[in-house]
Amino acid sequence: MKETKERILDSAENLFAESGYQATSLRAITQKAEVNLASVNYHFGSKEGLVDEVIRRRLVPLNKLRMQQLQNVFDHASSQKSNPNAEDILRAFIEPTITFLSSSNSLRHFTLLIGRSFAEPDDTVRKIFFSLMEPIFNTMMKGLKLALPNITEEVLFWRLHFSLGATSHTLRCIDNCPMTQLFNGKDPATDAESLIGLLLPFVTAGMEAPQ
Amino acid sequence: MKETKERILDSAENLFAESGYQATSLRAITQKAEVNLASVNYHFGSKEGLVDEVIRRRLVPLNKLRMQQLQNVFDHASSQKSNPNAEDILRAFIEPTITFLSSSNSLRHFTLLIGRSFAEPDDTVRKIFFSLMEPIFNTMMKGLKLALPNITEEVLFWRLHFSLGATSHTLRCIDNCPMTQLFNGKDPATDAESLIGLLLPFVTAGMEAPQ
DNA sequence: GTCTATAGATTGATAGAC
DNA sequence: GTCTATCAATCTATAGAC
């Protein structure tokens, strides 16, 4: 039997990912976690405190992976006295995400929550999420400017924006895609390797398109 | 003074776009519309009935524009005894959307709501939205298969998916983009022509990337 | 740390006068 | 069609016993 605190985090992660922050009540969370309602406020202070820790618990280590992989790209480029290329920058963002997604059922739920967070209407959740993401975005912009010096910063900004949109949309739709039925009834592949192999060429081609 | 029904629709459209369906109360809607609380249930039966009409009121004519433009692409191609090309198919989706966005303040709110709807956690809203979108997606897939016969259907499906993700993410972020501050403090361009000129080359290059 | 009980506010919906 | 008044349910949060 896991600790109460962890049971609450797991349950909240699961339900926030499925139904969103606003639509998920503390009662639903404690019921699924099989703990007492009051324990949420004891351990996290409030619903906001809970969602803060739900996001932080996974996103801090995930972003550490992303940042390390970005640093590797920079280091490797400068050791060759060349610039990083766009595909490697984008891969440093996407690969850890998709790997996270496929590594366990629990992390799979969190990945859906990340996808949700990109489109989250709630101000509190947005602030938590984007404050954690900002260093990653800044570093990616820095790399993309080096990789594609002929494309203006404004266009690179938008293309990064589009890439993140494509990625987050994909994360949200993996388990529950309303479009799936379009594909001839057959379920399209959603394993980690296939997804990276599909998404990365798409955003790389978009990023490198002539201006 | 507009009719009560229309005032409610406008107010709901505005607030749903800003804060999402779940987080918006009927009281907030009627207060902004300066009408009585009970009038929502008189005119629309329920909150679900209201959101259904909010979406339908704009999305039906918008999708009619999209479908006409798609039909034009098919007609023009067959009159030349050739296949449509991917860029024209994608433009037939994106151009009416962005034009809608820029045509008036009221439609601007609805466009944000469309962006929201792609990521909507609420089952009711999702069902309404995707049932209206399905014919468009099907027609686009048909056109893309003709345009890019060397790319498998599964890959085309995913690339259409990515394109819609990029587009909807952009719609959501136009007025309230948490990433804007990344771009050196300056606000990136968000007028209709600029957006089409940025988004369309991105998704076209991604769609046509060698497999 | 965990529980019961409940406060206090807000929600969607409706009954009934006009 | 529009209003007041209110119901019944639900929500987050907390007080206080154990």
Characterise the protein shown here.
The structure is a homodimer of 211-residue chains. Chain A has one domain: Orthogonal Bundle (Tetracycline Repressor, domain 2). Chain A is built from 9 helices and no strands. The structure holds a DNA duplex (18 and 18 nucleotides).
Give the end-to-end Cα distance of chain A, rounded to a whole number of Å. 57 Å
What is the CATH topology descriptor of chain A?
A: Tetracycline Repressor, domain 2
- Interface with most residues: A-B, 55 and 54 residues
Arithmetic mean pLDDT of chain A: 94
* General shape of chain A: globular
Poorly predicted parts of chain A: none
CATH class of chain A: Mainly Alpha
Number of strands of chain A: 0
Q: Would you tell me the structural class of the helices and strands of chain A?
A: mainly alpha
Number of domains of chain A: 1
State the helical fraction of chain A. Answer: over 70%
> How many distinct helices of chain A?
9
> How would a textbook summarize the main sheet of chain A?
none
User: What's the CATH superfamily of chain A, by name?
Assistant: Tetracycline Repressor, domain 2
Q: What order do the helices and strands of chain A follow?
A: HHHHHHHHH
Strand content of chain A: under 5%
Rg of chain A (C-alpha, Å)? 19 Å
Describe the structure using short key phrases.
homodimer; 211 residues; mainly alpha; Tetracycline Repressor, domain 2; 9 helices; globular; DNA-binding
